[in-house]
Amino acid sequence: MKLRPPVIDYRKIRFNNILSPEYRHVLLLLYWLGYLLSFIFIERLTPAAQHATVWCKLDDMIPFCEWFIFPYMSWHVSLLWMSLYTLAYDIPAFKRFMWNLILTTVIAVATYIIWPNQQLLRPDLTTLGRDNLLTKAVGIIYTVDTNTNVCPSLHCIGGFAILFAALDMPRFRKPGWVVFFVIFALMICASTVFMKQHSIVDFFAALPVTLIGWLAIYLPALLKARKNV
């Protein structure tokens, strides 16, 4: 993909002009700081022993597969990429992407505060019968990423947010790109259960949250665009 010059020259941002109409949308990037701080807060809000367990019978039918670490970890990179890409090339799409993330994250975090939850599906990696770089990497993820406050899944919510942002830009509405981003979002969702980071319940709980985000952020913009045609 050939990179073009950004639609705005961000090299001219200064403290005295950050609130100007040209640059104030950049402040939406503060979402990421709020996201990190909110998780630090809720992780310390309720002891793990008091978290409700999220599980269903379908979880036991889904095998652990360390290969899904690739789409699982790509979530972080793709969120950053979509933030920067829209910031550089499509300011309205950037605003909708960030506001969608803000709205859906607030709903998810509010759920965690009202209903602290966890899943207990992680396998004992020492008894898998295989030991490779991917299982070791999964073990590291298990160490740094707790299994609490998982329902609804923010991985799934973020995966759909990336899809919605892509479909919001004319460049990515071509059939090939649409198929790519749909599959990418579904692979992120699948990775959460095959990595045993989430119950399948967390995926289904994420769907109404993503729908709320789309209805609140993208549907009005879509209707407005059709009205102006």
Quick gist of this model?
This protein is an all-alpha fold and 229 residues long. The protein has 7 helices and 2 strands. The chain has one domain (56-228).
Walkthrough of the structure:
The protein is mostly helical. The protein has one domain. The protein has 7 helices and 2 strands; from the N terminus they run αβααβαααα. The chain has a two-stranded parallel sheet with strand order 1-2. The longest helix has 29 residues. The mean pLDDT is 94.
Entry keywords:
single chain; 229 residues; mainly alpha; two-stranded parallel ribbon; 7 helices; 2% strand; globular
Strand segment tally? 2
Provide the gyration radius in Å.
Answer: 19 Å
Helix content: 55-70%
- Give the N-terminus to C-terminus distance in angstroms: 29 Å
Question: Which class do the helix and strand fractions yield?
Answer: mainly alpha
Shape: globular
pLDDT averaged residue by residue: 94
Q: How many distinct domains?
A: 1
Give the DSSP E fraction (strand runs of 2 or more residues).
under 5%
Main beta sheet: strand number and arrangement?
2 strands, parallel
Lateral arrangement of strands in the main beta sheet: 1-2
Q: What is the chain-wise order of helices and strands?
A: HEHHEHHHH
Number of helices: 7
Low-confidence stretches: none
